[in-house]
Design brief:
The complex is a heterodimer of chains A (325) and B (367). Chain A is an alpha+beta fold. Chain A is built from 14 helices and nine strands. Chain A folds into two domains: 111 residues, no CATH class; 189 residues, no CATH class. In chain A, the strands form two sheets. In chain A, strands 1, 3, 4, 5, 6, 7 and 9 form a seven-stranded antiparallel sheet that branches. A two-stranded antiparallel sheet of chain A has the order 2-8. Chain A is globular. In chain B, strand 1 and strand 2 form a beta hairpin. Chain B has 367 residues and is mainly α. Chain B contains 16 helices and six strands. In chain B, helix 2 packs across helix 4. The chains are: A alpha+beta (325), B mainly alpha (367). At the A-B interface, helix 4 and helix 5 of A face helix 2, helix 4, helix 6, helix 8 and helix 10 of B.
Chain lengths: 325, 367
């Protein structure tokens, strides 16, 4: 048994790992990445596997996410490092180019990473890092940030932090889901943000698309997806080739309802951008979530999603594809 | 964020308070350095460090056993207390505070109180100290109404580092923690509101008013109104709040009189029954005089431009008197410059009023 065999065995022990394998193979088949890229990734993954010796599927998934961003394998003194950053590497150009793109974040993360505590917490339009979901004024308070030049944290970056990228979708496609009377569920579902359960307040950051193209941005691959458990490379509606430079989110509500087409919104990943007035960002409150997704066995859990991304392929097929690289 | 099970965090089940303290402190420090980032928060380093660290550690905490959760929270509080007051510890302190807020670790509250007059909040770099103080009050406010939050908030308000700009946050958080003490909180913060309004005006006061009205039960509000300090154009009064609650943009509350009895209710209703103002008729009239006359008398004597500049009045006050043949209807609302200029406002205190305090434009549309 090779190291890769052991790694793949551990991945296939749980649906969560099977989802990752499907996306790796699909990225190759869809020409989002090429064979040398994938070989380099697998080489780094094998080395990391030898170093870390993970024992469970979830640990392997976490390990691969760290391999994808070049944190693992840890360089050993005297030996050349094979770790490299595999993020934002899909070269398919984005078309169409939307005027404005949106990034949706949890309010707490927005405050922790991006804005000045002193500025946002002052005066009547403040809002908290852990807002009361029943706060009747959260929308107005967040929107009172618009037009202010003094709210930005020094050296803040959108997409800063351990994973150096952020996700965007076209604002015009998101807007119907963020109308004032809606909860955050609809937007969260459309964006496939399964990591946010109930009781989470979400904020939308809108920015002109031409601000995003000043840095590298790309259709997301398995490497960008990292630990995201509802990412998939291949969308259901294959009739629109003009949008091939965009990935598609998985609509969590459609998935929970057993819909045949799960495509949510177009999405791309963007390398970190300085978060300041030059971004010309506008802010709005998306809403608070009231539902948790992904918990219903055989309906919208990892097992059910793994079946969707397997698309009638067998584990043996996928194993052979991966080890043949 | 990875979905964790208890087995995934099993290594932490044997941790002591000191172990958690060191694990959290070292984890955040390691995360900040590229050469140590990969193994930050070992032995859970493959599960943590993928983006939103606060949420990831919250997930770890959620699947710990009850006993380990207690030790985790105490370790977190000790980590905050043990950090050296140095600039390079500030990012770790920020992260620890955010984590404390997320998991509602009330154990950190006693650790913050000793810092109100010194410590991190008094760091020579004023921006860092100011940011940390603002974060601390934010995190404590976010824990309300949990036990101990109100006392800690009062301690922070009493700090030399408290800025009047935080008065709205403190008031709303105190009202959320101790709604019965509404007037006490307002009195406690009155001078800060005065300073805030003098420096910045009363923009967005309606946001605070609606939040206060949301957290303070109607019966408490009804019994509290008479205790408010009302005075037009006097910054150190509660006029701004009364104006915003009853008069301003989308006011949350209204007072109506039916058959001589005054009722306080929330606008829009939403199933909340009106509450009779606890005073008797005489008191009610006294209240009416105290509230309305104070609002009107100064407003009518002044030019609209003066009123717009005033720090004590949200915009201005206009008054229309409708006579339906039986009793006049009085409405109070934002000053419309045109109305004021044309001298259409008037106030006749001799009329036997039926009061409706609310949106002037809405009332005027009945004309």
């Amino acid at each position: 048994m090779s190291v890769l065999d052991d790694l793949v065995d551990l991945l296939f022990e749980k649906p969560r790992g099977a989802i990752v394998v499907c996306n790796i193979i699909d990225c190759l088949d869809e020409a989002l990445v090429d064979t040398p890229f994938l070989r380099a990734f697998i080489g780094a993954a094998e080395a990391a596997f030898n170093q870390e010796k993970p024992k469970t599927t979830i640990n392997v998934v976490g390990m691969l996410a760290k391999v994808a961003r070049g944190e693992l394998p840890v360089s050993v003194s005297g030996a050349p490092s094979i770790a490299r950053n595999f993020l934002c590497r899909c070269s398919i150009a984005a078309a169409p180019l939307y005027d404005t793109c949106s990034c949706v974040l949890e309010v707490g993360r927005f405050k922790e990473d991006l804005v000045s505590d002193a500025r946002v917490n002052e005066r009547h339009g403040f809002f908290l890092s852990n807002p009361d979901p029943a706060d009747p004024e959260l929308r107005r308070a967040i929107e009172s940030l618009n037009g202010r030049d003094d709210i930005f944290r020094t050296d803040a970056e959108l997409g800063g932090g351990p994973v150096p990228l952020f996700w965007v979708c076209p604002t015009e496609r998101l807007s119907p889901r963020t109308a004032a009377h809606r909860t955050g569920d609809e937007a969260r579902d459309a964006l496939g943000m399964i990591q946010h359960g109930s009781g989470v307040a979400l904020i939308e950051i809108r920015s002109p698309a031409n601000k995003l193209v000043s840095v590298k941005w790309a259709r997301p691959t398995f490497a960008d997806a990292g630990i995201h458990s509802r990412f998939r490379t291949v969308n259901d509606d294959r009739t629109n080739p003009s949008i091939s430079g965009w990935g598609f989110t998985v609509d969590l509500a459609r998935f929970a309802a057993g819909a045949p087409v799960l495509d949510g919104l177009p999405e791309r990943v963007v390398e970190p951008l300085e978060f300041n007035r030059d971004l010309e960002a506008q802010f709005s409150f998306v809403g608070g979530t009231t539902l948790t997704r992904g918990l219903t066995a055989a309906k919208d859990d990892d097992e059910a999603f793994a079946q969707r991304v397997l698309r009638r392929r067998t584990v043996a097929d996928l194993r052979n594809r991966l080890t043949a690289l | 964020m990875l979905k964790l099970a208890p087995i995934d965090v099993a290594p932490l089940e044997i941790y002591s308070v000191e172990d958690f303290r060191d694990w959290l402190t070292a984890g955040y420090k390691d995360l900040a350095r590229p050469d140590t980032r990969a193994r930050a928060f070992a032995p859970l380093h493959l599960l943590v460090g993928h983006g939103d660290i606060t949420n990831e550690l919250n997930s770890v905490y959620d699947v710990l056993s009850g006993g380990a959760q207690i030790l985790f929270r105490r370790g977190l509080a000790d980590a905050i207390a043990a950090l050296p007051t140095e600039a390079n510890a500030v990012p770790v302190l920020r992260a620890l505070l955010h984590l404390a807020g997320r998991i509602k670790a009330l154990e950190v509250l006693p650790k913050l109180t000793p810092q109100v007059g010194a410590g991190f909040f008094g760091m020579p770099d004023r921006d860092e100290g100011r940011e940390l103080f603002a974060l601390a009050i934010d995190i404590v406010a976010g824990m309300a109404p949990a036990s101990g939050t109100a006392d800690t908030l009062r301690s922070l308000v009493g700090s030399v580092f408290f800025r009047s700009e935080y008065a709205p946050l403190a008031l709303v958080a105190l009202c959320r923690a101790e709604p019965q003490g509404f007037t006490k909180h307002l009195s406690f913060l009155r001078r800060h509101f005065a300073k805030l309004h003098i420096a910045h005006g009363i923009g967005n006061a309606a946001i605070t008013a609606r939040r206060v009205a949301h957290y303070v039960p109607l019966n408490v509000m009804a019994s509290s109104l008479k205790a408010l300090e009302l005075a037009i154009a006097v910054p150190e009064s509660d006029q701004w709040l009364v104006d915003a609650m009853f008069v301003g943009e989308e006011p949350p509350l209204e007072i109506n009189i039916e058959e001589g009895i005054m009722f306080l209710s929330r606008r829009g209703g939403e199933g909340r029954e009106p509450v009779q103002l606890p005073e008797g008729q005489e008191k009610a009239l006294e209240f009416r005089s105290g509230l309305l006359e104070e609002i009107f008398k100064s407003a009518l004597e002044r030019l609209p431009e003066d009123l717009h500049k005033s720090n004590a009045v949200p915009a201005a006050v206009s008054l229309t008197v409708q006579n339906d043949g039986l009793s006049p209807n009085v409405a109070v609302g934002r000053m419309d410059k045109r109305l004021a200029t044309e001298k259409k406002t008037r106030f006749d205190r001799e009329l036997p009023w039926r009061l409706g305090i609310g949106n002037a434009e809405r009332e005027q549309s009945k004309d």
